[in-house]
Amino acid sequence: MDPVDHHIVSLVQSSDGIKRVVNEMDFFADDRSSKQHDKADDDVHHHHHVKTETEHHGADQDDDVNTGLNLLTTNSASEKSSVAGDGITSSQNLKEKQRVNQLADVRAELDRINAENQRLKLTLNQVNSNYYALQMHLVSLTQRPRNRIAESSEANTQMNRPIEEKTHGEGMAARQFMDLVQTETKAENDELSESSSEDRCQELSGSPGNTIVESMERRQKNNTSRNQREDTPEGLPHPAGWLSNKGPKFNNSKDNEQTQQTMAMIRKARVSVRARSEASMISDGCQWRKYGQKMAKGNPCPRAYYRCTMATGCPVRKQVQRCAEDRTILVTTYEGNHNHPLPPAAMAMASTTSAAASTLLSGSMPSADHGIMNSNIVPKGMLPGSPNLITLSASAPFPTV
DNA sequence: CGATTTTGACCGGCGC
DNA sequence: GCGCCGGTCAAAATCG
Ligand SMILES: [Zn+2]
């Protein structure tokens, strides 16, 4: 159980590749140089620049702080003028000067700290993104041998039923992945989620036994809403934990943007898995509490809403729905990232989904080896009793880059 | 008795 | 504003 998880962590921490990758990301080199000067103007400038792409909250805070300082200066200025009438001007002036200097220093310090904060935030984004990429990689690596074993040992009747076509499909899978993502993302699929469920079923049945990867995309509002919206992502799992021990410097402002987008996407990522199952719910290793059920408009099958109860406050939700006519197909859509470590069985799936989603949505991982990722992403060996896994798709709330 | 399911109410977004 | 719709809440019911 734990070994797998632990394996991930250790691999993350000790891998040279990661460190190198992390080192590559250094997109505030300019800031650092300017920061060393401690020049207020530069900092302010950067600050402003940052403000545009930061979250709402931070900007407000900054404004508040600045106004407060300004008020202070005005107050002291008035005081000075009133006192200056007495006659002792030089000492007062000096005092005043000192004070202003102090204030400037404080302000500069504050700006610097803000910049630092911002930089750390970006760093965290980067690291998270890479974490997901690596996680996916690891899953793909750990799953391939398992599948091979499963294939070799044909004895298992219902357990770990390997998907048959996998032999040559490995390289294909990834490519299909990307291709489909590209094409389908480009093509306007307005509301794939419900209305086109029939189509998807057809697609699915059309190539039964073959892994189909779709990318459904539900555009919400404008693309503008992606930059901010950084409000306490409770969905972020352990990565924050091992992040703290290191403060790597980052580079590559180009990757930065991509990373941010990727992270934003990962946060809202939806991964839908369609499986062929008679059971009403596939066991994925997590505990779920049903919190709702609705009848979908287009099809007679109700849709059930579940919430993860493995940890209090885990934001992960999933909805399970049966396909309209082919009732044997069960569509499970996961949303969010787990708050807590998952049991390994669940990890096989969940990490795959989230990580695959990250890859899907970002198109290409920032500063990660693309070559190694071509391994099979689709989870195959699953929990006993779990049906053949047919499809996996991810959706982004906005058109992918 | 605690956890989970059921199920109608409720709510926010969106199109008219 | 109104009604539809997808999604969630929460009280009651049910389960183990
Ligand atoms: Zn969870």
Q: Determine the structural class based on helices, strands and strand pairing.
A: alpha+beta
CATH class of the domain at 268-360: Mainly Beta
Rg calc: 26 Å
Estimate percent helicity. 40-55%
Summarize the biggest pleated sheet: 7 strands, mixed
In percent, how much strand structure appears in the residues? 5-15%
Q: Quote the average pLDDT.
A: 54
Order of helix and strand elements from N to C terminus: HHHHHHHHEHHEEEEEHE
Query: What's the architecture of the domain at 268-360, going by CATH?
Result: Single Sheet
First-to-last CA distance: 37 Å
How are the strands of the largest sheet arranged? 1-7-2-6-5-4-3
Which stretches are poorly predicted, pLDDT < 50 over at least 5 residues? 1-85, 149-249, 364-390
Q: How many separate helices?
A: 11
Ligand inventory:
zinc ion
Q: Quick one: how many beta strands? A: 7
Which of globular, elongated, flat, extended, rod-shaped describes the shape? elongated
CATH topology of the domain at 268-360: N-terminal domain of TfIIb
Protein name: WRKY domain-containing protein
Main location: nucleus
Organism: Gossypium trilobum
GO cellular component, one term: nucleus
Short description:
By secondary structure, the chain is of the alpha+beta class. The protein contains 11 helices and 7 strands.
Question: What do these coordinates show?
Answer:
With 401 residues, the protein is of the alpha+beta class. Among the domains are: 106-135; 268-360, Single Sheet (N-terminal domain of TfIIb), CATH 2.20.25.80. It is 52% helix and 11% strand. It contains eleven helices and seven strands. The chain has a seven-stranded mixed β-sheet with strand order 1-7-2-6-5-4-3. A hairpin with an 8-residue loop joins strand 4 and strand 5 (317-322). Helix 4 (40-53) packs across helix 6 (90-152), helix 6 (90-152) crosses helix 10 and helix 10 packs across helix 11. The longest helix has 63 residues, at 90-152. The radius of gyration is 26 Å and the shape is elongated. Mean pLDDT is 54; it is low at 1-85, 149-249 and 364-390. Zinc ion (ZN) binds next to loops. It binds a DNA duplex (16 and 16 nucleotides) through strand 3 and strand 4.
